[in-house]
Amino acid sequence: MKFTAEQIANILEGEVVGNPNAEVWALSKIEEGDNGSIAFLSNPKYESYIYTTKATITIVNHSFTPESEINTTLIKVEDAYLSFTKLLTFYDQAKKDSKVGIEQPSIVSETVQYGENLYLGSFSYIGSNVKIGNNVKIYPNCFIGDNVVLGNNVTVFAGAKIYSDSLIGNDCVIHSGVVIGADGFGFAPNADGTYTTIPQIGNVIIEDNVDIGAGTTIDRATMGSTIIRKGVKLDNQIQIAHNVEIGEHTVIAAQTGVAGSTKIGKNCVIGGQVGFAGHIVIGNNVRIQAQSGVGRNVKDNEVLQGSPAFTYTDYSKSYVHFRNLPKIILEIEELKKTINKNN
Known about the structure:
alpha/beta, UDP N-Acetylglucosamine Acyltransferase, domain 1, about 30% strand
């Protein structure tokens, strides 16, 4: 796909300085720009590259004024970084929009209902009574179980599995290897030391504008629903157990595990490899540092670190002493010797 500087400026509501007919068909970093590519400059640290870049077009802030000759056509905008992000989104969507139709071989139940511009990649399976909205893209080797609902503008990348009865909202992105709706970890211990499986008869509800990273798993509820609220962003390789609820616009980094029936509030930021015990409540606007272990209820606006996690300020103060423990022990031993000698 080729775009002219004028077309891009119209998309970004920017101003062309240079050749409005300059054409690009690739995106690049400013320091790696080549003929036919578009780059951006927002960080002053990289300003020197604009005088040497081979990028055909460069997006810059309105405030930028060249100090010497440049060979790239400029598109001036209010915020170059946000505008380039918008352009990436537009480019990504344009690539997706080019894919339409049902590839073969695929298995699609006669009871499936789907909207306009569906793309279904080959070797995929769509079960009974599935409802699919408009502009949905399902890439090859996907499984969509019975009674699943996919909203509008949903993208399901290759190899994802969505078990029966799961409900997916609008504008969601589900990356490769994601499993939504597998059985929760439910087993009842018996007197003889064996375990009896507890049927998991609930489902998973994912609201609008949720992104789920590759390899993440979200278990169905034992009863009721596991719920991922609107705007949540989950990184790769995260485990969400049965009956968990994650509040609106919370973001969670990779390798985090959330045990069953834990409730996480809105607008939380959770680092990588954080572990949550089951049946606890995490408040809104909570910040949790990477590799923390959370085993208690957490109030709104707390910042936690450590395992077991405690308040970030207390952790920072204590960490000084953690590092000095060998020295402190030696000092204590010396004090003991002095005391014993004086006695």
